[in-house]
Amino acid sequence: MNRKQNGFSIIEALITMLIVSIILTSLIPVVTKKQRVSSDPWSYSSNASDIYFGLGESQSALIGANAVPDESKNCRLIITNNGNLSPDALNTSMIDFYQKNAGVMSKIGRIAFDFDTPLSGGNTAIGNDVLSSITTGSKNTGLGNGASQSNTLGQSNTAVGYFALNENRAGSYNSAFGRDALIKNQGGSNNVAIGYETLRSIITGSNNIAIGPNAGPDSDTSNQLFIDIKKTDSPLIGGNFNDRVIHINGSLTTTSGAVTASDKRLKNIGQDNNIGIEEISKLQVKNYTYKSDKTKRIHKGVIAQDLQKIMPNAIFVGENSGKIKNILYIDTNEILFTAINAIKQNYSEIQKLKKENLELKNQLQDMNKRIEKLEKKKSS
Q1: C-beta separation of 201 from 236 below 8 A
Q2: Which run of H or of E encompasses 315?
């Protein structure tokens, strides 16, 4: 007996729904995928993590977690986290610049910023091979190709300039500004170098300040000041921070004169110092020229070795200068105040002589009066 069907059976409905689902599933990529045209410059890599800008040989940028230069493309810019998906690396952002020469892609620069993680420690690097060896070093700043390239452990260094602080490994708190400034430093700390090749021979020396191109000696030293425009052991202005001494290898001219703190509240005051005229009378003033002075300008003064025999407190021993060891320096204040004592002693002597002269003058006047009286009596 035939039965008129008024609808789908359960089995037919299920089959129909399955067919519709298959058709819809196959259409999803077509419906949801952004329609691209041939002029669209963006394309996606097969790793589903990177984006490429440019078409074919004109490709110029890569952005993504695993972006690497494509030898077949003309990449100029890469933004990546260096392909490392560790938590530390994800806190590091890098922009690499590449250039193709003769078909070979070469990295020519990098800008890298990382944040305060146990590994990266807030370092900032701009330039090719800048801070490229860093491991646990933190809070370093490098700007310029090769700046602080070898640093691994050093902290809070600032290197600005081509190869500035290039060989530093563990030194900290150094500031180098200028090409090759502090280039050989490996473990020295607290150095300040400003200028081309300043302090370039320092390896482990610390606490130095050098200002001017080539300022600073060839030796590996510490606690020194150098201000000059050439490399010399006798800079225009030098000093020793340990001895609290400044040396001026030239003439010093001021408009206000020398000023020294002399408040008695700063001093432990002892007995009077009375050395003076005897010591000053023994000093021999000489004419001389400095051997290093090509102009042979004539100066006048006393010789340190001669003064040392008369006023030993006026002499102190400084650092070496080339082959000359233990250079002697003069504290001119000692001579000044000894000269003041000498003037006072001369003044006292003059006042004494003036008093004696007045007494003799009065005695002479009395004698003249007596003589006059005697002559009057004799004439009468």
Answers
A1: no
A2: strand 315-317
| Tokens coding 287 | 């004419």
Separation in Å, CA 44 to CA 59, 127, 304: 12, 28, 80
40-46 mean pLDDT: 63
pLDDT, tens digit, 9 for 90 and up, residues 71-81: 545 555 666 55
pLDDT at 301: 93
Contact 229, 216 (CB under 8 A): no
- Give the 3-state secondary structure of residue 177: strand
Contacts of residue 215, defined as CB under 8 A and 6 or more positions apart, other chains included, come to 193, 195, 198, 199, 226, 227, 228, 229, 230, 231, 235
Which amino acid is residue 190, in one-letter code?
A: N
Can you read off the two tokens belonging to residue 250?
A: 């030239």
- Do the beta carbons of residue 230 and residue 211 sit within 8 Å? no
Position of tokens 């225009």? 236
Helix (H) or strand (E) holding 225: strand 224-227
Tokens of 49: 């993590």
Q: How many CB atoms lie within 10 A of CB 259?
A: 7
**Chain centre to alpha carbon of residue 130:** 18
Q: Report how far residue 67's alpha carbon sits from residue 49's, in angstroms, rounded to the nearest whole number.
A: 8
pLDDT tens for residues 268-306? Answer: 999 999 999 999 999 999 999 988 778 888 999 999 999
CA 53 to chain centre: 42
Residue 98, number of CB atoms within 10 A of its CB: 19
Q: What are the beta bridge partners of residue 94?
A: 80, 112
Compute the distance between CA of residue 242 and CA of residue 222 in angstroms, rounded to an integer.
9
Report DSSP letters for 46-110, one per residue. TTSSEEEESSGGG--EEEETT----TTS---EEEESTT--STTGGGEEEEEEEEEETTEEEEEEE
